[in-house]
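Hi R.,

Here's the chain you asked about this morning:
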Amino acid sequence: MRDFSDGPRHLSVNTATVRRQGDLPTIIEACARHGIPAISPWRDQVASIGLDRAVRLVKDAGLRLSGYCRGGLFPASGEHRAAARDDNRRAVDEAAAMGAPCLILVAGGLPQYARPGSIPSKDLEAARAMIEDGIAELLAYARTARLPLAIEPLHPMYAADRAAVNTLAQALDIAERLDPGGRDGALGVAVDVYHTWWDPELYAGIARAGRERRLLAYHVCDWLVPTTDLLNDRGMMGDGVIELRRIRQAVEDAGFTGFSEAEIFSDRWWSQPIDTVLATCVERHRTVV
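And the predicted structure, written out as tokens:
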């Protein structure tokens, strides 16, 4: 297992972690100041300052990307399907321009939540079929941009509204059906400990992802007990119950050599100064991740 004790050289910060403390230029400057070598930006933050400026600021700061957030939200009906297709193609173009190693895909749940205005449905299997169709269509486009797609399974509590892909095995099965063999690295998975730590098949899934060369991104935070908000009460690494070192060992044993990306949606941490949050990320990355 890699030695993280000597500093943040393997750390990336997902920009959602400090999104309430400042805009993207502020986050880029602060990460560079703390010696954090990589970020994973969100599309709305990039859009707020313009793609060209975002590309320039990242380059000028000497930062790399661990991913780009996000594409997906595939289930839709009527004209919303075409809108979803076009939106995802724009996400690919943006990620490629930013120099991201992959575009993170959050699959979407039932159509009325994935793409508001769609015809309401309770048919989860139909939503999953739309997800697979949408990924298949986007994969063909992403290949032309030479941009890998990373399916991120989300915790089952989000199956209705955010993602009906809920286990690593499910994400890998989709990837294998759409990209048999996965030899060009075009379609893989993102392993986020917040969404996967509970899964009894997690370690088998990580090993499989390694064998199939599909481990594209690794996200860390922690699960608090009690969790007071299912979206915005993620824990700082080391404050919860996730076996962070064990999972990282499995991910690295499976061949992953990329950044360990801190992604923390938290009202608690959003209320802290940006320097406090980033300094804590650096320290916890060094001591507990």
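The first strand starts at residue 11 and ends at 14.

Let me know if you need anything else.
M.
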